[in-house]
Amino acid sequence: MSSVSFIIPVYNKSSFLKYVIECLKNQSGDFEREFIFVDDGSTDNSYEIISSLTKDLENTRILRQKNFGSANATNKGIKSARMKYLKFLDADDIILSETTDALLNILENNTDLVLVYGLQRKVKNLNDINIFENFDKRNYTVIHNPIKKAMRNSMFNPSQFLARTELCKKVGGCDERIKFSQEYSLTLKLSILGKFAKLNFPTAILPLVAPGQISEKKNNQIYRVSKALELFLEDNPELESKYKLYAQRRLTARAWRFAKRFKKSSFFSKWFLLYLKGFFYFNSNVLENCKKQMKFTMIS
């Protein structure tokens, strides 16, 4: 029998936890499971809610720590995991009842896959979701070389994917130098190990962000994924030159967009020239200038 560790980092998610725990209780499939909640220093009653609602959920552990950020909390869950596969779940998302079983079957039947992920759907009200919705579990696409896709943008959020525990531990989990958007650094690390697969159905359900928060969240997300990509390049100097150049193009393009947005820079500015220079050949000085520009405009 196969086995899955569910890892749920939690920080002040009291209003969502009943939905999260309910969807976990209803995960179908014949596999051994454990549930690891990591309370990352919540100041609301998240811990009490988890304790109450998981009394009848076997193999549940609730780990508590100070507020070190979601990357650290996720890593704590990874280190504590005892099962063959890891299913991550943000504490304000839910997954359909057949999600884990569908993703698990794909990984079990394709031993050369590193991870598999489903699509996402955003809703205004989690009450409106039927978690027992059926979908075609055989409709998936293999991504043979995911490195560029991973570098381009965040491919998925934590609630969307299932990965092999051994490989997540092998790469050291998430990069804790990036406190949030933890899945992106882990995705980058895993992308150099082998193939990914995408299940072509939205198996993860995310709440809509309030309109006033969208632009702020988007800007911070862009900064974080850029920072994670920059650190990934520093940590992997042996990467093929074509991947280094592609990553540099992504970073210089983002730096140029930030310069336009925050400094009203023109096409004659040094930031546009930096973008052009970064497009044609890899240069560590170009990346250093990108760092300065992004740091000037954003907060990690």
Layout of helices and strands:
Blueprint: E1 3-10, H1 17-25, E2 32-40, H2 46-53, E3 60-65, H3 70-80, E4 85-88, E5 94-95, H4 99-109, E6 113-123, E7 140-143, H5 147-152, E8 161-164, H6 165-170, H7 182-191, E9 195-207, H8 214-235, H9 241-263, H10 270-280, H11 284-297
Parallel strand pairs: 1-2, 1-4, 2-3, 6-9
Antiparallel strand pairs: 4-8, 5-9, 6-8, 7-9
Helix pairs in contact: 7-8, 8-9, 8-11, 9-10, 9-11, 10-11
Q: Could you describe the 3D structure shown?
A:
This protein is an alpha/beta fold. It has 2 domains: 3-208, Alpha-Beta Complex (Spore Coat Polysaccharide Biosynthesis Protein SpsA, Chain A), CATH 3.90.550.10; 212-297, no CATH class. The chain is 44% helix and 20% strand. The chain has helices at 17-25, 46-53, 70-80, 99-109, 147-152, 165-170, 182-191, 214-235, 241-263, 270-280, 284-297, and strands at residues 3-10, 32-40, 60-65, 85-88, 94-95, 113-123, 140-143, 161-164, 195-207. Strands 1, 2, 3, 4, 5, 6, 7, 8 and 9 form a 9-stranded mixed sheet that branches. The protein is globular, with a radius of gyration of 20 Å.
